Amino acid sequence: CRQRPGAMPECRHLRYLSPPPLGSKGSCVINESGEMIQIPAISVKAVDTTGAGDCFTGALACSLAEGNDLAVAMNFATKASAFSVMYPGAQLSYPTAYHLKTFHDH
Questions:
Q1: How many whole angstroms separate alpha carbon 94 and alpha carbon 11?
Q2: 3-state DSSP call for residue 39?
Q3: What pLDDT, in 10s, does the model give residues 62-79?
Q4: N or C: which end of the chain has fewer CB within 10 A?
Q5: Which of 48, 54, 69, 105 is catalytic?
Q6: Buried b / exposed e across 57-94, counting CB within 10 Å, b at 16+?
């Protein structure tokens, strides 16, 4: 995760949000403007869901720190957590930036 200069104010969302990943139902959150952002799940063959929520939260924080808006960050986090459940374990299943660039939604 590389922080874009001046991007930290975007992380203010983290005080207000704890978007629970809803597994096969995706995720949703109400942003500061009161709009609901709903991101559908990515369908993959899950091997192990251990750590998927932590992967989602870390990827969300990383994307926000890079200066992305909340919807973009939630899409990124959804993709990261979908990748993570395809492999066993927690931290070892978390994708790298390369993995996410080459991971195609199924």
A1: 21
A2: strand
A3: 999 999 998 999 999 999
A4: C
A5: 54
A6: bbbbbbbbbbbbebeebbbbbbbbbbbbbeeeeeeebb
| C-alpha torsion angle, residues 43, 36, 60, 87 (rounded to 10) | -20
Give the tokens for residue 12: 């203010």
Encoded amino acid at 67, one letter: G
Percent of the chain with pLDDT strictly greater than 90:
26
First to last CA, the chain: 25
CB 65 within 8 A of CB 7: yes
The pTM for the full model equals 0.76
| Torsion sign (Cα): 65, 67, 70, 72 | negative
- Dist. CA 22–CA 92, nearest whole Å: 22
H or E element: which one contains 99? helix 97-102
Mean pLDDT of the chain: 79
